[in-house]
From TrEMBL:
Residues 530-643 form the OmpA-like domain. It is found in: Cell outer membrane. TPR repeats lie at residues 97-130. This is OmpA-like domain-containing protein. SMART domains: TPR. The keyword Transmembrane does not apply. Residues 1-18 form the signal peptide. The keyword Lipid biosynthesis does not apply. InterPro entries: 6-blade_b-propeller_TolB-like, Bact_OuterMem_StrucFunc, OMP_bac, OmpA-like, OmpA-like_sf, TPR-like_helical_dom_sf, TPR_rpt, WD40. Its main location: membrane. Keywords: Cell outer membrane, Membrane, Signal, TPR repeat. One of its GO terms (cellular component) is cell outer membrane.
Length: 643
C-alpha cells in the first residue's frame, strides 16, 4: 500500500496556517520559503540547493530537514531521505512519532529491515492506537520480522550470465524457453531505428542452444514492429508464441495478448487472441501451459481481487483457420491473488507449479517472486516466498524454470551486467517443480501416410486421472506432450473412424529431458482384420486377475465400442514361451476372458465380443530376451466384423 510520506504531513502545514517555524534565522527562513515554492513547482534540484543554504544558516532547522527528506523521497533517493529523517529525529520534536513511521518506510525500501523494525516500534510506542498509521505500522513490523527471518535463512544462489551471445548493451529480459531447452526467446529494449530523438522500443530475440552453448541471438523479424512487443511465452514445442502488444488498432483494451504460429520455421502474422482472453482492460504477461490446455496471464479486468490479478483460460479447441479458442477466464482465487498486484505468471511444464510476482504477499519489499502448487483442478496451495537472495528489497519478476526443474532463468541489473541481463541459476530443492520429460512425434494413417488430427490423452495409471490432453492438429500431424517424472502413464491416441493406439510410459525413475520419447504413431482405419495392442492391460504374474491399473485402458475400449456400435471384436491373449504350451494357452485364454468379462459387465453386448487364447504361437518379438518376452506378453483386440 502506498503510504502518506509527503512533507505536507510535516511542515508545509505550518506555512499554510501561518504558524512559526522552528528557526529564528531570517536568512534560513528565506531560503526555506524559496525551496518550498520550487518544490511545489517541481524544481527539486533548485529546491535542494536552497535547503542546503537554509541548513547552513541554521543547522537545527527541523522543517528544512523534513522538506529535504520529502524531496529525496519523491526522487527515490531513499538513503539520502534517511539521512535527513535521522537528523530530524535527533531534535526530538512533537513530530517524532510520525518521522519514525516515515523512517521505517524508507529503511524497509532499501532493505535495512532492522532499522525499519526499530523505527516502526518507536512509532508504536509514541503514537496512540487510533492514529491513522497505527495498524499499518503493526503490519509493517510483521513484514520486517519476516524479512529478517528470510535473510537469516538465505538460500543458495549462484547466478551465471547467459553470455554476450544473448545479452547486449541494452536491457535484455523476460525469458521464455521451449521444453527441450534448445530455444530461448526474450525481450530486448532497443533504440528505435530512425527516431529523431533517442527513443526505445521492445522487440523479440531468439537464441538457439547447441551442445550447451547459446548461439548469437537474432531478432524475430516476422513479429517485431516499430512499436513495442513484450512479455512473451513460447509453447513447449516452439509452435506458438503468445505475447503482449499495446495500443494496436485491433486491440480491445490498452494492452492485449496476441499469438503467432510457427509453420515450417516461419512465424505467421500475429493475431489478436480475441475475447474472452482480452477485454477492455489491460491484459499482459501470458504463460502457456506445456500441454497447451491453459493460458495464464495478468490483468486488471473487472472481477479481480485488487490491482493486477492472475487469471487463466482453458483451451476449447481450434477455429477453422487454426486459431486457438478459449473458455471464459478464471481468476486463480484468494490463495494467489490479493488486494495488491500479482503479475508475471509462469506455469511450469509439470502443469502444477506456478511461479509469479506479488507486491502484497509477505516479502522483502517491492515485488517478490513466489511459487505455489496446484493440488486439484483449481485449488492452489498457499504461496511461498522464494527467499533471499532470489528476492531482494528491489522488484523481482519474470522468473522461469526449465523442464528438468533444476535451472531458473531471470533478468537482473546486478554488478557486472549491462543494464538488465539474463542469468541462470540452480534452484534449491524446496522450490523445484516436478521434473518433466516429454513425448514427441506425429500421427498418420497407416495406409496413406497422411497426417491425422487425433486426440491424445495421458492418464495416471495409479489414480486413473487424466493428467494431460492435446491434439496432433499441427502440420504433419505433429504433437508434443510433457510427462511429469515419477509415475506410470497410459498414453492413448484416438480419432473417429480409426482404432485407438496405446503406449505405456513407466517413468517412476528420472528420465532426462535430453532423452525424450520419440514416436511415429500409425493409426489403422476400422476395417475387418485390423488389430491393436492394449499396452495398459496388466495381470498378476502368472495369473489372469486384472490389476487396477488396467481400468483406464479397459474403459477406453468400452468407450471405443460405444462410439462404434457396428464393430464386433475378438479379444486375443498372448504369452511368452516360458512354460509349457498347454499352460500358456490356458493362461492366455483366461486373460482374454477376463477382459471379455469386464467389457460385458460394463455394458458391451456379448454378441459383439469373442475371446481366444493364442499362447505363445503368435510372437511379435524374440523370446530370447526379456524385452522381447515382455512384448510377446500382450492383450490385443481385432476387428471381426462391421455390421
Amino acid at each position: 500500500m502506498k503510504l502518506l510520506t509527503t512533507i505536507f504531513a510535516f511542515c508545509l502545514v505550518f506555512v499554510v496556517n501561518g504558524q512559526n517555524l522552528s528557526t529564528s534565522s531570517k536568512k534560513a527562513e528565506k531560503f526555506f520559503n524559496n525551496a518550498t515554492t520550487l518544490f511545489q513547482q517541481g524544481e527539486n534540484s533548485a529546491a535542494i540547493e536552497d535547503l542546503e543554504k537554509a541548513l547552513k544558516a541554521d543547522g537545527g532547522f527541523l522543517e528544512a530537514m523534513l522538506l529535504m527528506a520529502d524531496i529525496y523521497n519523491e526522487t527515490k533517493a531513499d538513503s539520502l531521505q534517511i539521512v535527513y529523517l535521522e537528523k530530524a529525529l535527533a531534535l526530538e520534536s512533537e513530530h517524532t512519532a510520525k518521522i519514525n513511521y516515515v523512517l521505517g518506510n524508507a529503511s524497509f525500501r532499501i532493505g535495512e529491515y532492522q532499522k525499519a523494525l526499530d523505527a516502526y516500534q518507536a512509532f508504536i510506542n509514541l503514537a496512540s492506537s487510533n492514529h491513522p498509521f497505527y495498524e499499518n505500522a503493526q503490519a509493517k513490523i510483521q513484514d520486517c520480522q519476516f524479512a529478517i527471518s528470510l535473510y537469516k535463512r538465505a538460500v543458495e544462489m549462484d547466478a551465471v550470465s547467459l553470455g554476450d551471445k544473448v545479452n547486449s548493451e541494452y536491457n535484455d529480459y523476460w525469458p521464455s524457453l521451449t521444453v527441450d531447452g534448445k530455444i530461448l526467446v526474450f525481450t530486448r529494449l532497443n533504440p528505435a531505428s530512425g527516431a529523431a530523438s533517442l527513443r526505445y522500443q521492445e522487440d523479440f530475440y531468439m537464441s538457439a542452444n547447441e551442445q550447451g552453448v547459446w548461439l548469437e541471438s537474432q531478432p524475430m523479424q516476422a513479429i517485431n514492429t516499430p512499436n513495442n512487443e513484450g512479455a512473451q511465452s513460447i509453447s513447449a514445442d516452439g509452435k506458438l508464441l503468445f505475447f503482449t502488444a499495446c495500443s494496436r488498432s485491433d486491440g480491445y483494451g490498452s494492452c492485449d495478448i496476441y499469438y503467432s504460429r510457427n509453420r515450417s520455421g516461419r512465424w505467421s502474422i500475429p493475431q489478436n487472441a480475441g475475447e474472452p482472453v482480452n477485454s477492455g482492460a489491460w491484459e499482459s504477461q501470458p504463460s502457456i501451459s506445456a500441454n497447451g490446455e491453459y493460458l495464464y496471464f495478468a490483468t486488471n479486468r473487472k472481477g479481480g481481487k485488487g490491482g493486477m490479478d492472475i487469471w487463466r483460460c482453458r483451451l476449447n479447441g481450434f477455429s477453422s483457420s487454426g486459431g486457438p479458442q478459449w473458455s471464459e477466464p478464471e481468476n486463480l482465487g484468494d490463495s494467489i491473488n490479493t488486494t495488491g498486484n500479482e503479475t508475471s505468471p509462469f506455469i511450469h511444464a509439470d502443469g502444477t507449479t506456478l511461479y509469479f510476482a506479488s507486491d502484497t504477499h509477505p516479502g522483502l519489499g517491492g515485488s517478490d517472486i513466489f511459487f505455489a502448487r496446484l493440488t486439484g483442478d483449481s485449488c492452489w496451495q498457499k504461496p511461498e516466498n522464494m527467499g533471499y537472495p532470489i528476492n531482494t528489497h528491489n522488484d523481482e519478476q519474470g522468473l522461469i524454470v526449465n523442464a528438468a526443474g533444476l535451472t531458473a532463468y531471470f533478468a537482473s541489473d546486478r554488478p557486472g551486467s549491462q543494464g538488465l541481463d539474463l542469468y541462470q541459476f540452480e534452484l534449491y530443492p524446496a522450490v523445484r517443480p516436478t521434473p518433466v520429460s516429454y513425448v514427441q512425434g506425429r500421427v498418420f494413417d497407416d495406409s496413406t501416410r497422411q497426417a491425422l488430427c487425433a486426440h491424445i490423452e495421458l492418464i495416471d495409471l495409479d489414480s486413473n486421472e487424466l493428467v494431460a490432453k492435446t491434439e496432433s492438429c499441427w502440420e504433419l500431424g505433429e504433437f508434443l506432450m510433457c510427462l511429469p517424472i515419477g509415475k506410470e502413464y497410459a498414453f492413448n491416441v484416438s480419432k473417429d473412424g480409426y482404432l485407438f493406439h496405446s503406449e505405456n510410459f513407466a517413468l517412476k525413475q528420472l528420465r532426462e529431458v535430453e532423452d525424450p520419447i520419440l514416436l511415429d504413431i500409425p493409426l489403422s482405419a476400422i476395417e475387418i482384420g485390423k488389430a491393436t495392442v492394449l499396452r495398459n492391460i496388466f495381470f498378476e504374474s502368472g495369473k489372469y486377475t486384472l490389476l487396477s491399473q488396467s481400468k483406464a485402458e479397459l474403459d477406453k475400449l468400452v468407450e471405443f465400442l460405444g462410439n462404434n456400435s457396428q464393430v464386433n471384436i475378438e479379444i486375443g491373449g498372448h504369452t511368452d514361451s516360458i512354460g509349457s504350451a498347454e499352460m500358456n494357452q490356458e493362461l492366455s485364454e483366461n486373460r482374454a476372458r477376463s477382459v471379455y468379462d469386464y467389457l460385458v459387465e460394463n455394458g458391451v453386448e456379448q454378441g459383439r465380443l469373442s475371446f481366444y487364447g493364442y499362447g505363445f504361437t503368435v510372437p511379435v518379438a524374440t523370446n530370447e530376451t526379456e524385452q522381447g518376452r515382455a512384448e510377446n506378453r500382450r492383450t490385443e483386440f481385432k476387428i471381426i466384423s462391421t455390421k
